[in-house]
Amino acid sequence: MDIIQIIFQIALIVVPAGAVLLTAIFFLRKESEKEVRSLRIELQRERQKYFLPHRVEAYQRAVLLMERIHPNNLVMRLHNPGLPAAAMQAKLLEGIREEFDHNIAQQIFINPQTWEIVRRSKDETVKIINLAGNQMGPTSVGMDLASKIFEIVGEVGTMPTEIAVAALKKELQELF
């Protein structure tokens, strides 16, 4: 009976001590999780404070890119009526390429799906310029090309650049 009493006495000490130890571990773990959550929130705020201005600027620049490569704006900015149509077409395509290349780094801050819309918009604008250029004769001049581009833009309705601008604005508004 002595051994049973000793085991019982040890159990009376160990079981409550174990329960206290498990309770302490449970509460310490909860407190640790709270601290980790708090640190994550603080890091997220700091990241937001740093990245948000850059993201806003990226959206602004992407919208500006879309406005600058809109066929109407592009023609008005780069138009040279005496230039042969083929040379004018090359000048317009070069303008699109330069604008896009100048802003390509903005994709770091823009949602990949939205950047894809921007990229496709650029490609569709190139197609419009090439479509108009392919309809020019050997004696056509820049004025003829410009007229044809305006005609195609009028037929298309909503331009790809306008769709991209709407997507960029929508996504930017979702940040706030």
Structure notes:
By secondary structure, the chain is mainly alpha-helical. The protein has one domain. Helix content is 85%, strand content 0%. The protein has helices at 2-69, 71-78, 85-103, 112-134, 142-156, 160-175. Helix 3 runs antiparallel to helix 4 (112-134). The longest helix has 68 residues, at 2-69. It is rod-shaped, with a radius of gyration of 32 Å. The N and C termini lie far apart (74 Å). The model has no long low-confidence stretch (mean pLDDT 89).
In brief:
It is built from six helices and no strands. It has helices at 2-69, 71-78, 85-103, 112-134, 142-156, 160-175.
The counted number of beta strands is 0
Q: Detail the poorly predicted runs.
A: none
Largest sheet: none
Class computed from helices, strands and strand pairing: mainly alpha
Shape: rod-shaped
Order of helices and strands: HHHHHH
The whole-number mean of residue pLDDT values reads 89
Please give the alpha-carbon distance between the first and last residues. 74 Å
Strand content: under 5%
The figure for the number of domains is 1
Structural Rg: 32 Å
Helix run count: 6
Helix share of residues?
A: over 70%
